[in-house]
Design goal:
The protein is an all-alpha fold. The chain has helices at 2-6, 16-38, 44-61, 67-73, 76-82, 88-109. It has one domain (20-109). It contains 6 helices and no strands.
């Protein structure tokens, strides 16, 4: 989580590619890991599918703008979990992040 937040810090002067894509990719990896911790008995494929579905659901929820939801998004926890605006590229970042988790998990098992 800290690496994802740090990727957005301007004083670190990270390359633009990392600033744009690292946070969302690492967020999806975090979701994958947290689901893996909660659902220990489930397969890696199940965890990956649920993590990707959750990430996509959160992103598409950003298309729905209502005052109560936007007030929730205005808080720090709401902003970190729900985001603010829909971006197609975020779906790609989530896919890469979950795929990275899946690859690390399946490689770890070998």
């Amino acid at each position: 989580m800290l690496a994802g937040l740090a990727s957005r810090r301007p004083e670190l002067e990270l390359p633009g590619f990392l600033v744009t894509y690292a946070g969302d990719t690492l967020w999806a990896l975090l979701v994958f890991w947290l689901l893996g911790l909660v659902f220990v008995g489930k397969t890696t494929n199940w965890v990956a599918a649920v993590a990707l579905g959750f990430c996509f659901l959160i992103e598409t929820s950003q298309l729905y703008q209502t005052p109560w939801l936007n007030s929730l998004r205005a808080t720090l926890p709401g902003s970190l979990v729900l985001g603010h605006g829909f971006l197609w590229r975020d779906l790609l970042c989530y896919t890469v992040g979950v795929a990275l988790g899946w690859l690390l998990e399946t490689g770890w098992q070998r």
